[in-house]
Amino acid sequence: MGPPAINARKTECIHGHPFTTANTYWHRGWRQCRTCNLHAVKAYRTRLETA
Ligand SMILES: [Zn+2]
Q: How many structural domains comprise the chain?
């Protein structure tokens, strides 16, 4: 019983996005929220462009 097991029972990410098949992908055994990842990439690009 570790963090991945606890994470697997959740139905939404830490930001409240639903963990649906379309919104979820696996990375190294961890579930990743596509919406959050998209936002993270967007923010990262914005930082690069404005830096
Ligand atoms: Zn999310």
A: 1
pTM assigned to the model:
0.68
The alpha carbon of 12 and the centre of ligand 1 are apart by a number of angstroms equal to 7
Instruction: Kindly give the distance from the C-alpha atom of residue 3 to the centroid of ligand 1, in angstroms, as a whole number.
Output: 17
Helix (H) or strand (E) holding 7: helix 3-9
Query: How does residue 15 score in pLDDT terms, banded at 50, 70 and 90?
Result: very high
pLDDT digits (tens, 9 = 90+) for 21-35: 999 999 898 899 999
How far away, in angstroms, is 7 Cα from ligand 1 center?
13
**Alpha carbon 16 to its chain's center:** 10
* Domain that residue 37 falls in: 3-50
